[in-house]
Write a structure and sequence with these properties.
Layout lengths: L1 H16 L4 E3 L3 E8 L2 E4 L6 E4 L2 E8 L1 H7 L8
Antiparallel strand pairs: 1-2, 2-5, 3-4
Length: 77
């Protein structure tokens, strides 16, 4: 079981690294979003710094999952 999970996560990571969106029906969507560079502050010293551009993983749950966790819909087992 552990090897199956590792294979799935490796596959998902590779797909995201190639810029592809992953959709799991009735669960949600995972995609990569490019965050532009920006000016920030060092919270300890207050010094102004430039935060470089980077990629972030964005997650959006499906309407079905949202309704299930909010008990709007019964979960079928």
């Amino acid at each position: 079981m552990e090897r199956i999970c590792e294979s799935i996560f490796k596959y998902l990571g590779n797909e995201l690294a190639m810029g592809r969106q992953i959709e799991i029906r009735q669960f949600g969507t995972i995609r990569v979003k490019k965050m532009p560079s920006r000016v920030g502050r060092n919270p300890k010293s207050g010094q102004v710094i430039t935060v470089e551009e980077k990629n972030k993983v964005k997650w959006k749950s499906s309407k079905v999952l949202n309704s299930r966790i909010n008990k709007d819909e019964k979960i079928e087992e």
